């Protein structure tokens, strides 16, 4: 066998040996070995669900919204109405608190057509 073939084989073998020694150390440092041994990592905390579910309806120039809060924390909702005509004044309702298990009704109107309606939410303090 030629000398270069032996040198190549020895370099490949030493590289494989170094990789075999470094991989377990890298896995341990990354925390994979502890998880594989049965020690489960604690689950990430999930945020508590909150916020009222709102449904809006437009009937001609009138807007009606019903917001129901099925969660244990209160939510503050506000109805926003954008009127289609440039001379018609857009309106924002006063914020209303929706307690746990409660439903509120919000309404507003334009003189003529309604262009857009949306609800904003804020956590009660």
Description:
Residues 1-29 form the signal peptide. It comes from Streptomyces castrisilvae. Keywords: Signal. This is Secreted protein. By secondary structure, the protein is of the alpha+beta class. The chain folds into two domains: 3-36; 53-123, Sandwich (Immunoglobulin-like). 26% of the residues lie in helices and 38% in strands. It is built from two helices and seven strands. The protein has helices at residues 3-30, 32-36; strands spanning 53-59, 62-69, 75-83, 91-92, 96-98, 102-109, 114-123. A hairpin with a 2-residue loop joins β1 and β2 (62-69). The chain is elongated and about 95 Å long. The termini are far apart.
CATH superfamily of the largest domain, called what? Immunoglobulins
CATH class of the largest domain reads Mainly Beta
Sheet with most strands? 4 strands, antiparallel
Shape: elongated
Class of secondary structure makeup: alpha+beta
How many H/I helices?
2
How many DSSP E strands? 7
Organism: Streptomyces castrisilvae
Protein name: Secreted protein
Keywords: Signal
Topology (SSEs and partners):
Layout (H helix, E strand, L loop, with lengths): L2 H28 L1 H5 L16 E7 L2 E8 L5 E9 L7 E2 L3 E3 L3 E8 L4 E10 L2
Antiparallel strand pairs: 1-2, 2-6, 3-4, 3-5, 3-7
Name the features.
single chain; 125 residues; alpha+beta; Immunoglobulin-like; 2 domains; four-stranded antiparallel sheet; three-stranded antiparallel sheet; elongated; Secreted protein; signal
């Amino acid at each position: 066998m030629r000398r270069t073939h032996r040198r190549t084989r020895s370099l490949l073998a030493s590289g494989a040996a170094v990789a075999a020694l470094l991989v377990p150390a890298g896995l341990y440092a990354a925390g994979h070995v502890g998880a594989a041994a049965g020690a489960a990592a604690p689950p990430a905390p999930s945020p508590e669900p909150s916020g009222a579910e709102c449904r809006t309806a437009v009937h001609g120039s009138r807007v009606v919204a019903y917001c129901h809060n099925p969660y244990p924390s209160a939510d503050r909702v506000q109805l926003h109405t954008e009127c289609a005509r440039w001379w018609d004044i857009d309106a924002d309702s006063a914020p209303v608190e929706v307690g746990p298990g409660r439903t509120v009704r919000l309404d507003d109107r334009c003189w003529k057509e309604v262009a857009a309606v949306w609800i904003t939410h804020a956590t009660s303090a």
